[in-house]
From TrEMBL:
The chain crosses the membrane at residues 42-63, 69-89, 138-157, 169-190, 197-219, 239-261, 273-296, 316-337, 358-376, 388-409, 421-440. It is found in: Membrane. Keywords: Membrane, Transmembrane, Transmembrane helix. It is a multi-pass membrane protein. The gene is Slc36a4_4. PANTHER family: AMINO ACID TRANSPORTER, AMINO ACID TRANSPORTER TRANSMEMBRANE DOMAIN-CONTAINING PROTEIN. This is Proton-coupled amino acid transporter 4. It comes from Schizaphis graminum.
Length: 456
């Protein structure tokens, strides 16, 4: 039986490589050439850069509004709490992945879905074993929804930033029209089928985003601060939205196992000063100052993206907005690519082989891109969209699946009571945050939609 499982595992290698690309979120480091069928291993610095890049984006720019919803003190505490849980679960995933690989004696490190599936299969509890065959599909669906949710958020960010840029030239255009204007650019990004064409966009995105963030920090730290800064929360109903935004900013857990499998030495990833710990510290050092200084600068007037708070009359404002639009647009291509590959692969298994695969590929990409546009136009509120995605899929990937897998595996490998206690606390936090977040955000989205309909 164990031999059959091993053979089945080896036969799934090609499918796993596709899932791995989805889990990574950022696919540019998968595009390196291979030698004798094996991917080249990455060093510490390259892996660290990919890890940090996968954890920064629109969520970081929304941290100012997260501090507005929760106040300076409470938001900082929850941000640190979520950060600690995220780091813990990332270590849990790497440990489980290594144990599963050793148990199955496979050459290829298991992906996120494979790790969760096999942890459930190896459990002594029937409740875990009974759902082990379907849990991988559930993980996969969450990753896919997260990727497409990220793409929708990117579209909203590009559109709202472009709307602000046009306003500086006295062109007042509603968000739906701006969404329509951005469609050709996004369609081009979505149509890139080869990684060698997408990979250069990664460097361009990094440069543009870093330039924009540095300039925003300069704005936030210069001049006088706002007088209406709160140190505690204002409404209980706003706390779930704050939690969802924080979770959205830690959506990079899907990167952990692919990068862990690719680094040339496991210890460089999981050690005290390894990629995981150092990278998460760097991400935290970007999120906290940017969010706190942004809220301290603009107070209750802080927007869903700090770029929307930049002054109209400053000569660098247009430059910053263009840089951020460029950076996020390039990131869209990287986030969209793996989702398109997986959807095409699944459809080909059902309806294929296709006579004209290129035509089918482009058609599928256009349809998926239109779905992300439909989601962005249906919920034209950047903060609510990010919080909803964070409350649903990001919570599941970052907290629920790693903790459940750890508990399932511990029935086979007895662990400490403290680790089991941490897993239970993680699951409890995830359930409370997800349920309240879904309710609060869907209610807020409905109210915002009703208000826009009545005003229109």
């Amino acid at each position: 039986m164990e031999t059959e499982k091993l053979n089945e595992k080896e036969n799934k290698t090609n499918g796993d490589s596709q899932l791995t690309m989805v889990e990574m979120g950022e696919v540019n480091h998968c595009s390196r050439p291979s030698t004798s069928g094996e991917n080249k291993r990455s060093g510490y610095l390259v892996t660290l850069m990919h890890f940090i890049k996968g954890n920064i984006g629109c969520g970081m720019l929304a941290m100012g509004e997260a501090f507005k919803f929760g106040g300076l003190y409470l938001t900082l505490c929850i941000l640190l709490y979520v950060w600690l849980i995220s780091v813990y679960n990332m270590h849990v995933l790497t440990t489980l992945s290594k144990k599963v690989q050793n148990r199955l004696q496979t050459k290829r490190a298991p992906s996120f879905g494979d790790t969760v599936e096999n942890a459930f299969k190896m459990s002594d509890k029937w409740i875990f074993q009974s759902i082990s065959n379907n849990i991988r599909k559930v993980v996969f669906c969450n990753i896919l929804i997260t990727q497409l949710g990220l793409c929708s958020v990117y579209i909203l960010f590009i559109s709202t930033s472009l709307q602000k840029l046009l306003l500086q030239y006295s062109y007042e255009i509603n968000i739906q029209t701006v969404l329509l204007f951005t469609m050709p650019l996004i369609m081009v990004c979505a149509s890139l089928r080869k990684l060698r064409f997408i990979a250069p966009l990664s460097t361009l995105a990094n440069f543009a985003l870093i330039t924009g963030v540095i300039t925003i920090m300069y704005y936030s730290c210069s001049g006088s601060s706002a007088e209406n800064v709160r140190y505690s929360y204002a409404k209980w109903s706003e706390l779930p939205t704050m939690f969802g935004i924080i979770m959205f900013s830690f959506e990079g857990i899907g990167l952990v196992l692919p990068l862990f499998a690719e680094i040339d030495d496991d210890k460089k990833f999981t050690s005290c000063f390894g990629v995981l710990n150092f990278g998460m510290v760097a991400v935290m050092m970007l999120n906290v100052p940017l969010g706190m200084t942004g809220y301290a600068k603009w107070g209750e007037d802080v927007k869903s993206s700090l770029t929307l708070n930049l002054p109209h009359d400053h000569e660098l404002t247009q430059f910053v907005i263009i840089m951020m639009i460029l950076g996020i647009a390039c990131s869209y291509a990287l986030q969209f690519y793996p989702a398109a590959v997986i959807v095409y692969s699944d459809l080909e298994k059902i309806y294929g082989p296709f006579n004209h695969p290129a035509i089918w590929d482009y058609s599928i990409r256009i349809c998926i891109c239109l779905v992300t546009y439909l989601a962005a136009s249906t919920v034209p509120h950047l903060d609510l969209f990010m919080s909803l995605v964070g409350s649903v899929t990001c919570v599941a990937l970052t907290m629920i699946f790693p903790a459940l897998s750890n508990l399932a595996f511990r029935t086979k490998d007895k662990g400490s009571f403290f680790s089991s206690f941490l897993d239970m606390v993680t699951i409890l936090t995830a359930v409370i945050g997800s349920v309240t977040g879904i309710y609060a955000n869907t209610t807020a989205i409905y109210e915002a939609f009703s208000q826009n309909h009545s005003n229109g």
